[in-house]
# Entry
Amino acid sequence: MDDRKAAILGEIPRLRRYARALLRDRDAADDLVQDCLERALARLDNWQTGESPRKWLFTIMHHLFIDQMRKAGRRGEVAMLSLDGDEALAVPVQVESIASREILDALQAITPDRRAALVTVAIEGFSYAEAAGILGIPAGTLMSRISRGRDELRALLDDRARRRSLKVVER
Amino acid sequence: MTARDFNERDIHLALDGELPDEERTAFETWLKANPEMKARSSRFRTDREALRLALASALEEPVPVRFMRLVAGDAGARSSQRSRWWQGAAAAVLLATGGVGGYLLGTRGIGIEDGAADRFAEEAIAAYVVYAAEKRHAVEVPASDEEHMRSWLSARIGLRLVTPDLTTEGFQLVGGRLLPAGAGKAAMLLYEDTEGNRISLFVTSESGSYAKGTYAENNRPTAVYWLDKGYGCAIVGALPQERLAAVARNAYRQLIEGAEKRV
# Structure
């Protein structure tokens, strides 16, 4: 196996984590990883020497993700999840703590653009400059998405905590 | 020292390691003097840690063999069909919002042109995933009330529904429930064998196309489905392929015979 393929292989765990943060459902996330790998392998020649494999692969995956979100959005199917639906939200096969489930559900409920910006920097550890390159947006836009994303995430979690305490009072 | 004014923006810069080193001390001082900002900063930090923790397992899992084969250039590892992660995402949305009792978004129109059959199968699988996993609340009407269930569900979905006898396949009726499907309704009948394996029959009169097939994704239950104009039926389960196919054929035959009988 050549070096480039070995480098791609080494990035798979991170690609899977990014995909899971974007999509929540594990099978769906792995399908996104698979699409990303297929596209990367088909375009190995586009990979500039010296470019970090991680950045290159994340850029490809991000394009795949955003394309599909836009297609769904144009058809009027943008997902606005309510956290009320926790009983109905089926996550049957995976074992998660309640805290993990809450924060992943909340992450899934913020807008896809903000989610991608926040995860790229706060989870994947890219610098603002790198993240802006991966997402194809100016640094200023990235910053505003990150700060709004954090606010939105926090508001959802606060809201959830408030409802829980209301339920206890009503009982 | 520069006495530049800090603001909320700097909280994010600091958290993300983008604040210049020479400003860090001044920033910390500013934070101490602004309890509200300090609280914000620590909430964001806590959220980040929680997110990292929740996602950490992805890094520890072994790389799936199919990915290794794919990268190694094994042609067999390529998906023979377009992968469907976005449809899965749509189904997840359907589930999540369906349970809220508010607006149902549906999966109509997502993805590919001939998506009606896929969508139908996805819906049937989604229903199975939610309800077959429920021990005590899997059904609305139990098998002990079979006759009532049959007439109720028939009236709701608008076709004559029978409850196929699958005892020769080892399955007993558990009960049934009414569900949303696309823009309309579906009946779901749940069966169980002595080992606790469950299968569901998902029936609707909403179908607008002709198709039949098997919808299988890795690590998910499989749906065997038939669509006919004005009739759709999917049999869903996590059984070995051949057994599921046999049960499905048997169930389908009985459903069709039942539906065609005029009262």
In short: Chain A touches chain B through 63 residues (CB under 8 Å).
